Amino acid sequence: MRVRFWGVRGTIPVPGPDTIRIGGNTSCVEVYTPDKQLIIIDAGSGIRRLGQTLEKEHPGRIIGNILISHTHWDHIQGFPFFTPVFGRSNRFVLVGQKRVGQRLEQILAGQFIAPYLPYRYNSLPADLLVKEVGEDETLIIGDNTVVKVANLNHPGGCLGFRIENNGAVFTYCSDVSHGDDAFDPNVLKLAEGADLLVHDSHFGTTEERNKFAHWGHSSWEEAAQVALEANVGTLALFHYSPDLDDDSVERILDQTKKIFPRTILATEGLELNLPLHEE
Ligand SMILES: [Zn+2]
Ligand SMILES: [Zn+2]
Fold first, then answer.
1. Is-contact 239 217, C-beta < 8 A?
2. What CATH number does the domain containing 158 carry?
3. How far apart are the first and last CA of the chain?
4. pLDDT digits 0-9 by tens, 228-252
5. Domain for residue 277, yes or no?
6. Distance of CA 143 from the midpoint of ligand 1 (Å)
């Protein structure tokens, strides 16, 4: 199972000289299974470059699933610029939260409205199917890929995903805040024994995390403690605050490794193959 990171930032894209090593684009991760199932997680600004790459790698037809953790803007803002949606032969299943009184398709289409954009969601040539999922649902993609879904503690909710294929396990928990006394049990459930856990590490310090607890995010320290508790193979820090420059994020990695040595930074362009430590 191949994992590629296209956007690793939270809140707003921050391209520039201070973020060149980590990357400035917002959340987008691609998972590609050995049996050629394409799974895209989140459609932040990083999805634009993924789209260009997919068009080169699959010149005939692109078929895939796009899992939307939640519809905060940093997780959907790239979608109108994901050029495969302009390809008539392409087909995507968009998977996201089932919510009372709000249809996922309407929320996504709400980004394509004049005077903000000159084209509409309904006019996109690709075949787009929307699937709303509830708490604790399991999806089967292709013959061999199981995607387990759970709701995480975040304002308005946020889906976490556990993707299993051929014994390899990838867990994505991008936006979540833990209690002061206990971790979000759904994060632990999704992450248990995973080869790779991608976890929110928005805040650079615990003080900041405590001050802005209502934002619904974690610190790198909490990410490391979850990785320990869930006994994961490798932890990838993710969803960095736009205020953190490359030097700050690299310092955070050093600190995190003191708690959980098998930690890496999710960086734009990073490609990994799971399981990571095959003997
Ligand atoms: Zn976010
Ligand atoms: Zn969010």
1. yes
2. 3.60.15.10
3. 16
4. 999 999 999 999 999 999 999 999 9
5. no
6. 31
Residues 165-181 have pLDDT tens digits of 999 999 999 999 999 89
Count of Cβ atoms closer than 10 Å to residue 143 Cβ: 8
pTM of the model: 0.97
Residue from 5, 44, 13, 50 nearest 27 by CA: 44
Measured in angstroms, how far is the CA atom of residue 154 from the centroid of ligand 2?
7
Number of domains in the chain: 1
Site of tokens 């391209």: 15
| Closest ligand relative to 174 C-alpha | 1
246 in a structural domain:
yes
- Classify residue 276: in a domain, yes or no: no
Q: Is residue 89 part of a domain?
A: yes
- Smallest-distance ligand from the CA of 12: 1
Residue type, 233: G
Closest listed ligand to the CA of 215: 2
